[in-house]
Design a protein that fits this description.
Helix content: 25-40%
Mean pLDDT: 86
Structural class: alpha+beta
Low-confidence stretches: 4-10, 12-21, 289-294
Strand content: 5-15%
CATH architecture of the largest domain: Orthogonal Bundle
Order of helices and strands: EEEHEEEEEHHHHHHHHHHH
Length: 298
């Protein structure tokens, strides 16, 4: 059963999130699911009433609605195991993976809203255009190791483990979606890479075999200075990556050291070490060599 609702503001008008905790879902109970239906020109929440089934996740319920009530409902998904990052949405206003959000954790006594990610343009219904992220990925200077020494490359285990956390990213882009720098300010997309790519840049900067200095590039082209450490990206990461503490803050420290640390500057002068690589020099190692975030995002 589908019932049109009076909520017409669009995906950003979702009601407040339900309180966290185990609420339980009794079989035979009626679920009131409010799914956002529309496209780039606007839309509204439409309510679907379906019977509850034990052990379901939100994606299960959306699939049942798609099969029985709304065959034209657009929803993106793939693995249904929390590893592909395709089914990102906002559930009761909270960015999350639909396949990893159990119905038993939601207050089913109240309507449950499912809306597309607010930061990205809506294509249709629950599907958004996340191509901005793929364009920014082209701007990341690639891994640049030195020529292999005799006997091959060697790394300490501690260095392996440091980067392992960052490689758990499934590119669901929930961190990008929740980051207020671009969520609330569309114009910042021209100058700001976002948390997912700060994780990637931190992984490269901390890699003991990498020889490329990206610090000026991170400051000038990637916009790391816009981040004000609210940790909202860490809170929504389904892989539990400590984005703020282990990636963004260390990255900021490296950028500050290279740009403003007078002791480091004096040490380079005395020891006649080369100055940090410029942003333009680092840009030559990207797949979009001479382009800024602004050009790639267009």
């Amino acid at each position: 059963m589908a019932v049109g609702t009076s909520q017409t503001e669009g995906p950003s008008g979702a009601p407040s999130p339900a309180s966290a905790g185990e609420h339980g879902t009794a079989s035979g109970e009626t679920l009131h699911m409010q799914l956002w239906r529309g496209d780039k020109d606007g839309g509204q929440f439409v309510e679907y009433q379906v019977p509850a089934q034990e052990g379901e996740v939100v994606l299960d319920v959306v699939h049942r609605i798609q099969a029985s009530h709304a065959p034209d409902l657009a929803v993106r998904w793939n693995c249904k195991a929390g590893k592909c990052g395709s089914c990102s949405a906002e559930i009761n206003g909270v960015p999350a993976l639909m396949c990893m959000t159990r119905m038993s954790t939601l207050d089913t006594a109240s309507p449950i809203t499912v809306s597309p990610m607010r930061t990205f343009p809506v294509l249709r219904d629950l599907v958004t255009d996340v191509s901005f992220n793929f364009e920014v990925a082209k701007l990341i200077p690639s891994f640049t190791p030195a020529p292999p020494p005799p006997g091959g490359y060697r790394m300490q285990q501690v260095d392996v483990e440091r980067g392992q956390e960052f490689r758990k990213c499934i590119e669901c882009f929930l961190c990008q979606n929740v980051c207020h720098v671009i969520r609330d300010h569309e114009e910042n997309k021209a100058h700001y890479a976002g948390p997912r790519f700060f994780v990637r840049l931190a992984e490269l900067e901390m890699h003991p075999l990498d020889t490329l200095d990206r610090r000026a590039y991170v400051r000038e082209r990637m916009g790391v200075g816009y981040c004000n450490i609210t940790k909202c990206c860490t809170e929504v990461c389904p892989e539990g990556i400590h984005i703020t503490d282990n990636a963004i803050i260390p990255l900021k420290e490296r950028v500050v050291d290279s740009r403003y640390d007078p002791v480091a500057w004096l040490g380079r002068k005395i020891l006649r070490r080369p100055a940090p690589m410029t942003a333009a020099e680092a840009a030559a190692h990207t797949s979009a060599a001479t382009r800024g975030v602004s050009d790639a995002a267009r």
